[in-house]
Write a structure and sequence with these properties.
Layout: H1 2-5, H2 11-72, H3 76-104, E1 122-124, E2 127-129, H4 172-191, H5 237-240, E3 266-269, E4 272-277, E5 280-283, E6 286-288, E7 323-325, H6 355-360, H7 369-374, E8 393-395, E9 401-407, H8 412-425, E10 431-438, H9 448-454, E11 460-464, H10 471-481, E12 486-490, E13 494-496, H11 501-510, E14 514-523, E15 530-531, E16 537-542, E17 546-551, H12 554-560, E18 568-569, E19 578-581, H13 582-587, H14 601-611, E20 615-627, H15 640-655, H16 660-668, H17 683-692, H18 697-703, E21 715-721, E22 726-731, E23 734-738, E24 749-751, E25 757-759, E26 762-767, E27 772-777, E28 787-789, E29 802-804, E30 811-816, E31 821-826, E32 836-841
Helix pairs in contact: 3-4, 14-15, 15-16
């Protein structure tokens, strides 16, 4: 007993206590875990019981639906309505899955059966079956967009006469003239005992016959032999009357402000608060009686959900400014040829016997011109928007836009595909016009044949320049004749995706000083496939004003809780595709008219927008595919490189303030010689900047693009000599050596981006013919004042040397120990008297 007692004295007693407490704590944890497991098992059991009950209820409902369907088919009038509804539901389902198929697709093109009568369907055992696909069910066909895509949200109420109720304020107004007659005709034929074969047949144009492509959505605009009406262009809501909208459903397709939410509770959508009350919707404190009086769960004006609103923005729902969901228009020829080359954005393949022709025609556009001509000009492409985009709300009273394409010797098929994508996927009430600016093309097919082809589209105008002006002045020519409230500039080799336009116009509508860009996705120059790009991309630049793409960091995404559908602040736009308020464009002074042809205009207008009170955003809910070419297929009136360099020098001189040294110092020092590079008069541009009250470029770096590394000098501080262990000192205008002292201003020097070794306004200058060095007046245009050091010296053995740029041979700065000064000598990589170190280096 005494042996054990000694172990419980002093620290042993403490250890025993800790051990006992640990055992007790472990027992309590085990008990709590047992209780938690029992609780989880109980909840799982309840959920399973709930699912079983729901399954039983669903089966009962299905049996009831079968009975209803049997009764339905005894009524010929109801049978027609049911057939139309079946077609529309298939269209919605196929379109809704297109994005998922695309995201998960592999490089293989799905095998698709070619059948021109793909529009015919019948019911077999209560299921829709395609009678022309060997009994395959529709849901076994390729899951692609056919006409109106997911969440089109068209609400049409057909009366018995086949007309649309006047109170419907939705996208159905766009289609009703085309579709109403077709619906009425089908009803009359069925009642009269005529079968489907008695109805007018819809014909397919071969993929290669581009002149036969139709645009049924703009009635009267296609001056072709037979206009095509596509009943699948009607969404399910078009014929099913009022449809409840449920909040919180998995697909977010429906809105039910009263079914899920108790009275008076607030639902937060993006950064806008929707206060749900009895028969009213409150948005930012403003009340609108938006609920349909016919039922508590229907919404009459909030039809279909809005690009995310910024803080402080007010989204007012009222009689003059109601909202709807973004329209997922895709109005193309019907029936669509599933087997067409490149259909649905799939990669196309050149047949072996055509490979030589394909290679020979590459230089026509610097992409696969042969394949482009095999692809329909109105081909479908996958809906690549983030899932939340189809539920975004936009205002009904969005501004109209003029879409401006500038081209020179553009390939025929890509130009037509660009125009058709705008016509087919833009709400017609918002598309004021399409302006094609021909920058003095030489191709014959872009003259009279283009005029003839576009004559069927009243909204398309062609402006022809009498001499080559270049992209910048061509855009100004297009803007000068535009009448839309918003200018939308697009390149002439693009394909606009579903729902591309409304999110752009919504942001401009909310703030006229916002300049917005779509997400630019990739159309392969080799196989013409449509490819996704990474989310959270934004346009940036690196020195010397080189544009590039950069992804938001995970830290920023997490900190700001950025969603994949949120607008992204963009320091610099790519420049080829953007929308801007027309009046604001002119208030900013448009582009600098002194810029030539192409290059640098995206930098100029980006700096101007940000520094003069505007903002640039990339809108993820707007997607446009673009063919990125390895080089420009057209010629520059002058040397291309010199043209771009000259434009960038104008931008630097007007907008970069003291940071223009970084531009020149990163490889453009030769532009400082005005005898060889004339950048033109900058007086008007500098006066414009002063008139607009624009902020400094330092402000831009701090507030818009703080991630950019932009040190004002390369290096600074003391200049230490390795051989003497002393520092250069300025004394009465001459240079000498003294013991290093950080507190002495006379020993502080900078190595600038102009490669000057500078102290205040004086620079180190070689003396000729002697090899002395003195302090003289700084002049950026003089090459003999430039000293290479560290990163600007190509020879690694000379990195610590200070080399003056003299010809025919380089000379190095050397400590003169005899006269306690500095001089120039032939460079010797081993001499410690020629090795120098600054206190601080900002670039290596």
């Amino acid at each position: 007993m005494m042996k054990f007692r000694k172990y419980f004295r002093g620290s042993g007693r403490v250890l025993a206590f800790v051990f006992a407490a640990s055992v007790i704590w472990l027992l309590l944890d085990m008990a709590a875990l047992r209780v938690s497991i029992d609780d989880v098992n109980s909840r799982l059991l309840k959920e399973r019981i709930g699912r079983d009950r729901e399954t039983v209820r669903h089966k009962a409902t299905k049996r009831t639906d079968v009975a209803k369907n049997a009764a339905l088919f005894r009524d010929p009038q109801k049978r027609v309505d049911f057939d139309l509804d079946t077609e529309v539901r298939f269209s919605n389902r196929a379109g809704k899955k297109a994005a998922d198929v695309y995201r998960k697709r592999n490089n293989a093109t799905p095998a698709i059966k070619d059948d021109s009568n793909a529009d015919k369907a019948k019911l077999v055992d209560g299921k829709v079956v395609d009678v022309n696909h060997e009994g395959e069910k529709f849901n076994k066909l390729p899951e692609v967009d056919m006409g109106v895509n997911r969440d089109f949200g068209v609400h049409m109420n057909f009366s018995k006469s086949g007309k649309v109720d006047k109170d419907e304020r939705t996208a159905a107004h766009v289609m009703r003239k085309v579709t109403t007659s077709k619906v009425e005709e089908r009803r009359r034929n069925f009642v009269a005992g005529k079968g489907p074969s008695d109805s007018p047949k819809l014909t397919d144009a071969p993929p290669g016959r581009q002149e036969d492509k139709l645009h049924p959505e703009h009635k009267g605009e296609n001056k072709l032999d037979e206009p095509v009406d596509d009943p699948r262009l009607l969404a399910k809501e078009n014929i099913s009357g009022k449809v409840p909208k449920k909040i919180g459903s998995a697909s977010q397709d429906k809105i039910s402000p009263r079914e899920k939410m108790p009275k008076g509770q607030t639902v937060k959508t993006d950064k806008t608060d929707f206060d749900i009350k009895d028969k009213a919707i409150h948005i930012n404190g403003k009340v609108n009686s938006a609920l349909n009086q016919s039922g508590p769960d229907t919404v009459s004006h909030v039809t279909l959900a809005t690009p995310k609103l910024g803080k402080g923005t007010s989204l007012t729902v009222g009689h003059k400014s109601s909202v709807h969901r973004v329209m997922s228009l895709d109005v193309t020829q019907y029936p669509r040829d599933f087997s067409a080359v490149g259909q649905f954005g799939q990669p196309a393949v050149v047949p072996k016997e055509k490979e030589l022709e394909s290679r020979n025609r590459w230089d026509e556009g610097h992409f696969n011109v042969y394949l482009s001509e095999q692809i329909p000009v109105d081909r479908a492409i996958p809906d690549t928007r983030p899932d939340a985009c189809s539920g975004k709300l936009v205002h009904d009273d969005l501004p109209t836009t003029s879409v401006i394409f500038c081209f020179v010797d553009e390939v025929w098929s890509t130009l037509l595909r660009s125009v058709h994508s705008v016509l087919n996927r833009s709400p017609p009430q918002l598309l004021k016009e399409i302006i094609l600016v021909d920058d003095f093309s030489s191709k014959d097919y872009l003259k009279e044949p283009l005029e003839k082809y576009m004559s069927r589209f009243p909204k398309v105008r062609i402006v022809r320049l009498k001499e080559r002006q270049g992209l910048i002045r061509a855009r100004l020519a297009g803007a000068a004749v535009a009448t839309g409230e918003v200018l939308t500039f697009l390149d002439s080799h693009v394909e606009c995706n579903i729902g591309w336009l409304e999110p752009l116009l919504q942001r401009v509508h909310m703030d006229r000083k916002k300049v917005v860009c779509p997400v630019i996705e990739v159309i392969s120059d080799k196989d013409m496939s449509y490819m996704l790009v990474d989310n959270f991309q934004r346009g940036v630049f690196k020195w010397p004003l080189v544009f590039g793409w950069n992804t938001l960091t995970e830290e920023v995404i997490r900190k700001d809780q950025v969603q994949d559908s949120d607008p992204i602040r963009c320091p610099v736009m790519a420049g080829g595709l953007f929308s801007i308020d027309r009046k604001y464009f002119y208030e900013l002074g448009t582009y600098d008219p002194g810029l030539d042809v192409w290059g640098g205009e995206n930098m100029e207008i980006s700096f101007k927008i940000w520094m003069c009170g505007g903002e640039i955003e990339i809108i993820p809910c707007s997607r446009v595919g673009h063919i990125f070419r390895s080089e420009n297929p057209y010629k520059f009136p002058k040397d291309r490189q010199k043209t771009v360099e000259r434009n960038l020098a104008r931008v630097a001189e007007v907008w970069l303030d003291e940071y223009k040294d970084l531009f020149y110092g990163h490889g453009y020092l030769h532009l400082l010689d005005r005898s060889t590079t004339d950048i033109g008069d900058l007086t008007e541009q500098k006066a414009l900047r002063k008139k607009l009250g624009c902020k400094s470029f330092r402000w831009y770096l701090e507030k818009v693009y703080p991630e950019l590394d932009a040190p004002i000098v390369r290096a600074q501080g003391l200049i230490f000599n390795v051989g003497t262990r002393k520092c250069i000192t300025q004394k009465d205008g001459s240079l000498t050596f003294e013991t290093c002292d950080l507190s002495k201003q006379s020993q502080q020097f900078n190595h600038t981006w102009m490669r000057h070794i500078q102290q205040k306004g004086s620079c180190l200058e070689p003396q000729a013919p002697v090899r002395g060095v003195r302090l003289g007046h700084c002049d950026s245009s003089k090459p003999n004042l430039r000293w290479m050091h560290k990163s600007v010296i190509p020879n690694s053995a000379m990195k610590e040397h200070v080399v003056v740029e003299l010809r025919p041979g380089p000379l190095c700065l050397e400590a003169d120990t005899q006269h306690m000064g500095v001089r120039l000598s032939e460079c010797n990589s081993a001499s410690p008297l020629q090795k120098w170190q600054f206190t601080h280096y900002y670039t290596q």
